[in-house]
Every structure is written in structure tokens, then in C-alpha cells.
Design goal:
Strand content: over 45%
Number of helices: 3
Radius of gyration: 29 Å
Helix content: under 10%
Structural class: mainly beta
Largest sheet: 33 strands, mixed
Distance between the termini: 83 Å
Number of strands: 63
Shape: elongated
């Protein structure tokens, strides 16, 4: 299996690997590793810098014990196996230039300690921490796999490196692969364990095609960057790369110790698997308390999203990359379960999967960069949001045989005919602690089939962008907002990042949001009585709705907006509630990191339209039961549409202050006030 070994260090590394419990086959090449026992590791402390002594070594003199004294630098020229390793404080073990060193004890990667973020090099490198290590101790010297992200180069180390030619042992750490079988095209029943920092499990790149069947991966310790997958359990990256996980169990704990990364046009498929990532307990001391939005260094969720946490379970990156999750459970403790970040035109798909957060905060998915997201037959149990929307197209529906087969073909998910037959047809169920969708950029959401949405608060929360909602209730879809608000359109209350100098990161999240006071100025250019290209829109077909729709955008130049309308259309639908322009108010007028849970939390007071038009069309077969005073800018009724009041009450309409009869088949524009008495 060893290949591309052209240097003395390569040859020596290959020879020492042959001394391990490894069985090679001629073709296909395979690696069988069976190592018993668990690691017993010392407390991990970063070694001090050492400059006094430097020597090279391939094996200890007695073959059993290797000691690196204080002030010594031991540069290993090849993979070395001992039964006892002692690194005194100030001692350093290193690999030659162009190689990376990994320590395993009884098959567990251990001892790796990241440098400080402020070391001048991004804090990316790891050192083997001082201490005493006993057992089957392997110091593995492997060819470097350095991956560039922005202006930083990340020194990846991984148990298995795979490319188009198969497993490359020269870049792998075979001593970390416990049990199972490894070939050039697949690995079955392997176990990967790590309690060091920023170590990767399986890295598939360069057009490789690889299948992991029933892997068990548990990583405990910090990663460093989930925008490149530094410290992730599994990475699939590069054009033409296909990575399949079937029956995987991945459970990680640590800062940005991500489970699955899909990047750079790869196609990653996860099926019949369980993925969970728990927050790390030790955020680097030098990391800014408020965090940074600089993606080279960002290791905590931006608090301005109303969230906390330091690890998301997956990330989808790059251009036109695909990640598909089928019949799987993807959960995070906080932050997020499924993320698309730093990419463009990617596709995220989940079919018959459970998506959740286990500690009461977090999102189901994050969408940015014109991504397309499909959720068919999924169950969301999320702390805050099913989706944070930064520019995407998202669909929540049923996993019908036709819909799943179509995605299987178009996205090359690779499900067999037998697998397709076995997948049951399910409806999507969304249970979100706060909102179903939070918009920060224009994009669409479609809800259909039997999708059932239950939220602790508002269903759709839009921060003054061109959101587009389409809900088709003909298959039984329902919306149940906990606070009675179906759609809230309002100005953004997201504090901003602030540029900084003299630090490795370019920004820190020290901005604040202060609520405007006084009445908004009426714009002389904004049109409130008809739909505009930048409006937020929502259409509802064949559904019964109970809840309110509010538009609180101030406009008049506030936040650069002259105005924004909320445009609503109902077809063969009934609504009981308020539709109105409003004025919002936060409980806390100035929002800082201390008030991060107050972001998006507002109360509404219905008020006349200023720059926040409300344009309503009641189409054929639709009715609106007005429960309280509502202010609109345009109302159109189909010939059989009705506007009514609750039983025992009456509703009246004034247009620009003039009482006006409400008649089917008519349209009204101006300052419309519907009053219930």
C-alpha cells in the first residue's frame, strides 16, 4: 500500500509501518489493523520553545523507551514505535520539513496541542505535549498535506488520505486505524479515536471515490477551522471526489471539531448514520470574548444570530458542492446541525432524517451563497430556527417515491433501487423553539405536502429583505406559531462586526444595535400600494391559517431603505387574524453580546402605513376573518372572496378616512383601516 516513496524518510516510514499489525494484499491493496487497548494519556500542556539541542533519530537505542529532555529537539526521520515515550517540559519532537508528526498510543491519536492563535502563523501547527506515554506508542512521520485557506496554510494530519489512486499510506497514519478492513476504494468497520487537537479522520481529495461502511469515529479535543475542515472527522473535497458514509457513527466533542465537511465541488453522501457534535469546554484564551466574523479564525457562532456554541456538526463549502443525508440523525449540542457556509451554488439535501440541537439553542440548517436545500420527510427538533436564510432556495415536503428518485438521479446520491424501495414516505415535521425561518438575505422557502410546522414564536421572521414564501396546504401542511404571528417583517436588529487592527483576525463582534426613536420619515419615492421588486412576499394555497402578519419596516432612509412592502396572496384559503402595518419595540433598546437572546424579540403595535405597505390579495375561495384593527395599503378581493369579523362582531373599512363598503370583486388602495367592533 505504501506508494510515492521517493526519499529516505519515506522509505524508512514505510519500513517501520510494516512492523505493525498490518496485513497487505497484492490487489486490491488492503490494510487490516487490529490493535487492542485504550490510550492512557497525561495532562496535555504545550511544550515550551526549545533551542539548545537538535538531533535526529529513527528508533530509540533500546527499542522500548524514547526520552526527549528539556531543551532538546528530536527530529524523527521515520515512523518510530516504542513502548514508552517521555517528553520533558521544554522538549520537542518534530518531523523533517515537508512531513507531519502524529502520535498514537494503543491506536488512539493523542498528545497534539495547537499553538496559540496569536503566534504569528495563525496558531495552526500542533506540537506533541510534554508527558509520559505508555503502551504501543507510535510516532508516525507522514508526508505533509497542507491545505490553503485564504492566506493561511493548514497542516492537515489524517488517519487515511485518499485520492484518485486510492489510499496513500505516505500521507496516512495507519496506527490510528483500529480494526476493520481498508482498501483503495473502501473501508469497513474501522474505528478512529482521537483526543489530540486538529487531527482529521478520513480525508478524500483529488477526484477520489471512497466508501466508509460502519465506521466508528470519536474525537475529543479542539479543531481550529471548519471552513477548511481542520480537525474534522471526515472531509470530502475536490472536483470529481465522491465520499459515501453508510452506517457511520461519529460523536465528537470540541471547539469546531466538526463531523463531516464537504468542500470544493465534491459529492458527499451520508446514509443510515448518526452524527453528533458537542461543544468544547476550552475556547482558546487568546480568542476575543465577543468572537470574530473573520472566517480564518471564527470558532464560535456569531452571537448576533441570537445563538451561542462553538461547534456545528457539518459544513458544506466551495462551489457547486453537494452533501446529502439519508435516513440519518444529524444533531449538534448548540450552534447548528447542517450548515452551508462560505460556498456558492451548493446543494444540501436531507431525506427521512432527524435534525436537531440537544441543548435548547441552535439551528437545523444555515444557508448562504445561492444554495439549494431540500428537506423531504425530515424531523426537525431545534432550539431556535429550522433555517437561517442568507440567500437560498429551501423546500420542506414529503419524501414521496417520485421526489426522492428525482433527487437521487439529479444529485447522484447513489441510492440503489432496493434502497429507494425501502425508504418510507414521510412528511416533514418542524418543531422549532423560536422561528421556522430567519431571513437576513433574499431567498425563497416552499412548504408543501403534509409538512407540519410548530414554532415557539413566529413562523417566518424576515429582517427587511426580499423573502419569498410559498405554502401549499393541499397535502395537509399546517403552520402553528406559538406567539400567534405567522409572518414578521421588520428592520434588521443584527449588530455588526467592527474592524480591528494589530490582531490576526480582521474583525471582532463588538457592535451594538440601538433601536430608533421617534416616528419614521415618509419617503417621497416609495410606493406602498403595489408590489415592488424588493418586497417580501408570501402566498398560501388550500390552507387554514390562524395567526397574524406584520410589517414594521420603518423606511424613509432608515438603514438605507426607503421602504418595503409585505405582499400577501391567498387562494382557496382561510385566515383568522390580523394583517397590518405595525411599530415594533424591543424589550432592551440597545443590544450587545449580553443581550444576544433579545435579538429578533419584539412586540408589535398596529399603526397606519408609512413606508411599510401591506398589499393583500384574497383570491378565489378565500376568506379573512379580521380579529383586530388592521392597517393596509392595498386590498383586492376575488369575486367569491370574503372579509368578515368574528361571530357577533362587525368589520368596517375606511379608505383615506372615508367609510367604504367591503365588496367582493373590488380593489382598494390608499390608507386602509379595517376596524372590528
Amino acid at each position: 500500500m505504501a506508494r510515492r516513496s521517493s526519499t529516505g524518510a519515506d522509505r524508512q516510514a514505510g519500513a517501520s509501518v510494516m512492523d505493525q499489525d498490518v496485513t497487505y494484499r497484492a490487489r486490491p491493496r488492503a490494510l487490516l489493523v487490529a490493535i487492542a487497548g485504550l490510550a492512557v494519556t497525561p495532562a496535555l500542556t504545550a511544550p515550551a520553545s526549545a533551542h539548545s539541542t537538535k538531533h535526529t533519530a529513527g528508533h530509540p537505542k533500546d527499542g522500548k523507551t524514547l526520552t526527549v529532555g528539556s531543551g532538546e529537539i528530536l527530529e524523527l526521520t521515520g515512523t518510530t514505535t516504542v513502548s514508552r515515550l517521555v517528553i520533558e517540559e521544554g522538549g520537542v519532537v518534530a518531523a523533517p520539513e515537508g512531513y507531519r508528526l502524529t502520535l498514537t498510543v494503543n491506536g488512539v491519536e493523542t498528545g497534539a496541542k495547537l499553538h496559540e492563535l496569536t503566534d504569528g502563523y495563525g496558531g495552526l501547527a500542533t506540537a506533541v505535549a510534554a508527558g509520559t506515554y505508555r503502551g504501543r506508542v507510535v510516532l508516525d512521520v507522514a508526508v505533509a498535506n497542507d491545505v490553503t485557506f485564504s492566506d493561511l496554510s493548514f497542516p492537515m494530519r489524517q488517519a487515511l488520505y485518499v485520492d484518485a489512486a486510492g489510499v496513500d499510506e505516505s500521507r496516512s497514519v495507519p496506527s490510528n486505524v483500529r480494526g476493520g478492513t481498508v482498501t483503495d476504494t473502501a473501508a469497513r468497520d474501522i474505528i478512529l479515536l482521537s483526543n489530540g487537537e486538529s487531527y482529521n479522520g478520513v480525508y478524500v481529495a483529488g477526484g477520489g471515490s471512497y466508501t466508509l461502511t460502519r465506521p466508528r469515529i470519536a474525537f475529543d479535543g479542539n479543531g481550529r477551522c471548519d471552513f477548511i475542515g481542520y480537525g474534522a472527522s471526515v472531509v470530502g473535497t475536490g472536483e470529481g471526489t465522491t465520499l459515501v458514509l453508510d452506517g457511520a457513527v461519529i460523536k465528537n466533542e470540541g471547539v469546531v471539531r466538526t463531523a463531516v465537511i464537504a468542500d470544493a465541488t465534491a459529492n458527499v453522501v451520508v446514509k443510515n448514520s448518526t452524527l453528533h457534535c458537542a461543544d468544547g469546554s476550552h475556547v482558546p484564551a487568546e480568542y476575543p470574548e465577543t468572537g470574530t466574523g473573520d472566517t480564518r479564525y471564527m470558532i464560535t457562532v456569531p452571537w448576533m444570530l441570537g445563538l451561542s456554541g462553538n461547534v456545528r456538526t457539518t459544513n458544506l463549502l466551495g462551489a457547486s458542492t453537494r452533501a446529502s443525508y439519508v435516513n440519518s440523525s444529524i444533531t449538534s449540542e448548540t450552534w447548528g446541525a447542517l450548515s452551508v457556509d462560505g460556498g456558492s451554488r451548493c446543494t444540501l439535501t436531507a431525506i427521512n432524517s432527524h435534525i436537531g440541537n440537544t441543548k435548547g439553542q441552535g439551528y437545523g440548517s444555515y444557508a448562504i451563497g445561492s444554495v439549494t436545500e431540500h428537506f423531504l420527510g425530515c424531523t426537525f427538533d431545534v432550539g431556535d430556527y429550522a433555517l437561517i436564510h442568507w440567500g437560498a432556495s429551501a423546500h420542506y415536503g414529503d419524501s414521496t417515491k417520485e421526489a426522492v428518485a428525482a433527487l437521487n438521479d439529479s444529485l447522484e446520491i447513489g441510492l440503489s433501487k432496493a434502497e429507494l424501495r425501502k425508504l418510507p414516505v414521510r412528511s416533514t415535521v418542524v418543531d422549532a423553539g423560536r422561528f421556522m425561518v430567519l431571513w437576513y438575505a433574499a431567498g425563497s422557502v416552499t412548504v408543501d405536502g403534509g409538512t407540519r410546522v410548530t414554532t415557539g414564536k413566529t413562523t417566518f421572521m424576515c429582517k427587511a429583505v426580499a423573502a419569498e414564501v410559498t405554502v401549499d396546504g393541499s397535502g395537509g401542511a399546517t403552520l402553528r406559531p406559538g406567539n400567534g404571528v405567522i409572518f414578521q417583517l421588520m428592520d434588521t436588529d443584527r449588530p455588526s462586526s467592527v474592524p480591528v487592527t494589530g490582531k490576526p483576525w480582521k474583525t471582532e463582534m463588538t457592535g451594538t444595535y440601538t433601536e430608533p426613536t421617534g416616528s419614521p420619515a415618509k419617503s417621497s419615492t416609495w410606493v406602498t400600494t403595489s408590489a415592488q421588486a424588493t418586497d417580501a412576499t408570501a402566498s398560501f394555497t388550500d390552507i387554514e391559517l390562524s395567526g397574524d402578519f406584520y410589517n414594521a419596516v420603518r423606511g424613509g432612509g432608515n438603514a438605507g431603505l426607503q421602504g418595503q412592502n409585505l405582499v400577501l396572496a391567498f387562494t382557496r384559503s382561510t385566515l383568522k387574524g390580523v394583517i397590518s402595518a405595525t411599530t415594533t419595540k424591543h424589550r432592551v433598546p440597545t443590544l450587545t453580546i449580553a443581550d444576544y437572546r433579545e435579538i429578533s424579540e419584539v412586540t408589535n403595535t398596529v399603526s397606519p402605513v408609512v413606508n411599510n405597505g401591506v398589499v393583500v390579495t384574497l383570491g378565489s375561495g378565500s376568506s379573512w376573518t379580521v380579529t383586530k384593527t388592521s392597517h393596509l395599503s392595498a386590498l383586492t378581493l376575488a369575486a367569491d372572496a370574503t372579509v368578515r369579523a368574528p361571530r357577533g362582531r362587525t368589520v368596517t373599512l375606511t379608505v383615506d378616512g372615508t367609510p367604504t363598503a367591503i365588496e367582493a370583486g373590488h380593489s382598494y388602495t390608499g390608507a386602509l383601516t379595517l376596524t372590528v367592533a
